[in-house]
Amino acid sequence: MSFSPLIRQLIDALRGLPGVGPKTAQRMALHLLERNREAGRQLAHALEAAMDGVGYCSRCRTLSETEICELCRDPRRDDSLLCVLQSPADVWAVEMAGSFRGRYFVLKGHLSPIDGLGPEEIGVPALLERVQGSDVAEVILATNPTVEGEATAHYVAGLLKPLGISVSRIAHGVPLGGELEFIDGGTLAHALAGRTRID
Question: What's the pTM?
Answer without folding.
Answer: 0.84
